[in-house]
Amino acid sequence: MKKRIIIGVGISVFFIYFVVRNTDCRNIVSIISTGSYWWVMPAIIGYTLSFVFRAFRWKYLFAPVKTFSPKNLFPSLIMGFAANSIFPMRFGEIMRAYIVGKKYGISKSSAFATIVLERIMDGISVILLFLLIMPFLPALPSWTRTLLSIAIIFFIGALISASVMILKKDYVKFLRRIPFIKDTWKEKIVSKASSFIIGLGTIADKKNFSMAIFYSFIVWIFETLNLFFLIKVVGINVSLPVAVFILFVVAIGVSIPAAPSSIGTFEFFLVGGMVFFGIAKEQALAAGLIVHVIGVVYILLLGLYYFLKEGISYKEITAGQ
Q1: Is residue 65 within 8 Å of residue 201, measured between CB atoms?
Q2: What is the number of other CB atoms lying within 10 angstroms of the CB of residue 38?
Q3: Residue pLDDT, tens place only, 154-187
Q4: Comparing C-alpha atoms, which of 189, 123, 188 is closest to residue 160?
Q5: 29, 101, 117, 237: least CB-packed within 10 angstroms?
Q6: 92 or 66: whose pLDDT is higher?
Q7: What is the enclosing helix (H) or strand (E) of 303?
């Protein structure tokens, strides 16, 4: 954890430096203090619904492992996202797999595989939404095409890799031939790998995979609405296609491991996406801070509620890793 913290903070400091340099902090504070905060209510509704539909999607991703209702999965989902706001390097994903695995008596490796697949689907959904709105945007800078190309290669490549693992799942038997490792450890590796592959099983099921993709689109539509409403707090009015573009840039940017809640990377990429459309850097940064803080505070409060309700502690989770 200490190494994760050091690396994550270092990455965040790097991006914070570049996003705040040459800005007037007093102007940013003035913009934030005079915002129209009644836009927060529709934004929170959209944000909440995005998590509701994430729970529906997770149900279909879990189908090869165990049958769940979205209601069963929602608390673990929220606790995982809340943990990402506290711990660096997306430790909340591991925490979420541990919580749902322990609570329902399933393999934590299988649970973690569904989260990996969830992240792949998030990336692909954002890419597809971006491609759909491209005709409604002005000519984009070259860095956008580079970012899109990298995202396509990474997420489509990850989906292909996961598909190959499903189709060639017997390959894990070759893990037993790894030299210089005790047989007991080899069996543990094979067991974990086999459970992980089972968790990717939705890829091989047309119905469940289609439903998961469908809910992924719904999730990111509501994520877009959340951003669309919150940036109005500081008087930024953009079209929905522009909001999708900004969200695309942010979504790819925050995939970079950083300090808790993607501090620094979130603001840097959000400002970068907005500045292209002629929005002043200080106004964009003010909007980014509002979007980030409101989102983090909301999910932390919701996560704290479920942590207390479920009686789960950080010490218990780390002891189980």
Answers
A1: yes
A2: 10
A3: 989 988 888 887 776 666 666 666 666 676 776 7
A4: 123
A5: 237
A6: 66
A7: helix 281-310
